[in-house]
Amino acid sequence: MAEDCVDRHVARWRDHWIDIHFDDEVEGVVERIGAIARYLKSTKKAALADTGLQDFEYDTLHMLMIRDTPGHASPTALAHDLGVSPAGITGRLDGLEKAGWIQRRASAEDRRRIGVEVTRSGADTWRRAMGRRGDAENALVGVLTAKEQAQLNRLLKKLTLTLEPE
Fold first, then answer.
1. End-to-end CA distance of the chain
2. What does the CA dihedral 49, 125, 118, 83 come to, rounded to 10 degrees?
3. Considering the domain 23-161, what is its CATH architecture?
4. 3-class state of residue 145 by DSSP
5. Among 60, 57, 1, which residue's Cα sits nearest to residue 32?
6. Would the pTM of this model clear 0.85, i.e. be above it?
7. DSSP β-bridge partners for residue 116
């Protein structure tokens, strides 16, 4: 297999750590995960630029669209899921509503409660961004066979499980 930028990085740094244990394999794994994360971040940025979305707008639409009730949520639930304050979610929703991507509606059960709903325009915009991101992700992972993808997925899951609280 051809040498990549991580192989060159490891070779440069290997002899600099005389007083500290330096493991080529650990460094390679960490650096490759970092390179993939940077690539995915840049493809998200390009997808958002193409669709006219800002990062926080995409994140809010995404959180609305991936719910058990796709496209519908309360402002409180959205704020919680996004980790933003009630004032922060109000500002986000104001901008999304002004752009025509969401609308606020009074609850049918309790008119004092407000729900947030993605509009057709908002769903279409989110889907275009998701399509661009999906194309980039498929191109990246598509260099692996189905068996390799499953193996990599299992190995990455083993790593991510160590990050989750018990």
1. 38
2. -30
3. Orthogonal Bundle (1.10)
4. coil
5. 1
6. no
7. 73, 104
Over residues 139-159, the pLDDT tens digits come to: 999 999 999 999 999 999 999
Cβ contact 114:73 at 8 Å: no
Please state, in angstroms and rounded to a whole number, the distance separating the CA atoms of residues 28 and 7.
Answer: 7
Residue 114's DSSP bridge partners are 106
Residues 6+ apart with CB under 8 A from 6: 27, 28, 31, 32, 35
Q: What is the pLDDT of residues 52-92, one digit of tens each?
A: 999 999 999 999 999 988 999 999 999 999 999 989 999 99
DSSP, collapsed to helix, strand or coil, labels residue 104 as strand
- Amino acid at residue number 83: G
Tokens of 10: 């490891």
